[in-house]
Amino acid sequence: MRHDLVIFDNDGVLVDSEPISNRLLAAYLTELGHPTTYEDSLRDYMGAAMHRVHDLIGERTGQRLPENFDDVFHGRVFAAFEEELKPVAGVEQVLQTLTADAVPYCVASSGSHERIRVGHRTTGLDRWFDERRIFSSQDVGRGKPAPDLFLYAAERMGVAPERCVVVEDSPLGVRAAVAAGMDVYGFTAMTPADRLAGATQLFSDMGELADMLL
Question: pTM of the full predicted structure?
Fold first, then answer.
């Protein structure tokens, strides 16, 4: 079945940001007295909105993170993006193919609108995504694994959920897509395949994706 809308996750799917942001998140939480390894951060927070960080730290320690936690963290992330961020290898070819075949697509990310735009501007992906194609968990309140964000993106793009396919690399994102009633292609470049077991299909190289979508 050819889908009527392709919904991309952003971090780890469009921009290769997960190693950067999880390294910095682990370091910042450790600095604040909540020892966290890079592997811990990937396991607990990859694909999640920032409220999950606050929620899990609160549940585990009974403590609250500083009020300026998000601002400080994002400042560090954006500075690192300017130095290190690259698009995921092969994703521009996928976007070019979708555009040439007139297949609608958009991005639906747990990250803030500012984070999405900074990443796209830094990597040059902004030329593929105008304002009408960008959706953030900020738009809906409940981030992944709730289906709200993907359902909102489909509604705004005018496509029924069952006609959408989501491209995701996190367990939380796969759960959200399944809950939304959408097909989901799991990208295993950074995530073990067994953690994306709920996906419709799995792939490990972005070069495979265009054939899967068309």
Answer: 0.89
